[in-house]
Design a protein that fits this description.
This protein is mostly beta strands. The chain folds into two domains: about 1-75, Sandwich (Immunoglobulin-like), CATH 2.60.40.1180; about 80-150, no CATH class. The protein has one helix and 14 strands, in the order βαβββββββββββββ. The strands form four sheets. The chain has a six-stranded antiparallel beta sheet with strand order 1-2-3-8-5-6. Strands 9-10-14 form a three-stranded mixed beta sheet, with no helix packed on it. A hairpin with a 5-residue loop joins strand 5 (about 50) and strand 6 (about 55-60). The chain is globular, with a radius of gyration of 16 Å.
Length: about 160
Amino acid sequence: MVRALFLDYPDDPGAWLIEDQYMFGSDMLVAPLLTNGDGREVYLPPGSWIDYQTGRSYPAGWHHIEKGELDIIVLVRDGAVIPHIKLAQSTMEMDWSRLDLVVYTTGNQAAGGLVCLPEDNELHEIALQLSGNKYRLTEDPLDGRVTWKIRTYAD
């Protein structure tokens, strides 16, 4: 779901002033490049944020952020898990039985996110816990229907 920042951060006065950024789901902040250039000023709500393309982390507040390979700036909330699927020619060819769970973190012990399979049309919570130097599912939300590959952004 796409939402204005102030809907997720109603107590943050800065979020009420932003008209050209939005939340994409609960864990991704999108700041489109609306003018020519390699970057832009981006307002980040409370918490830590990780650049989806570069992996650089940022605290809350205003930052000049350069674009990555894509001409858009996307940041992920620290501690978020974003499901990824192998690229396919069409959505009909996507293999939903194999998903990568990419953990965006600056060292959190726990991470979480949501996943939805097309045949379910239902959101399932994903919870991971750091065990040694790897993240592991605390339980399988899809009861073995999916083979999970868990990695951190840096892997």
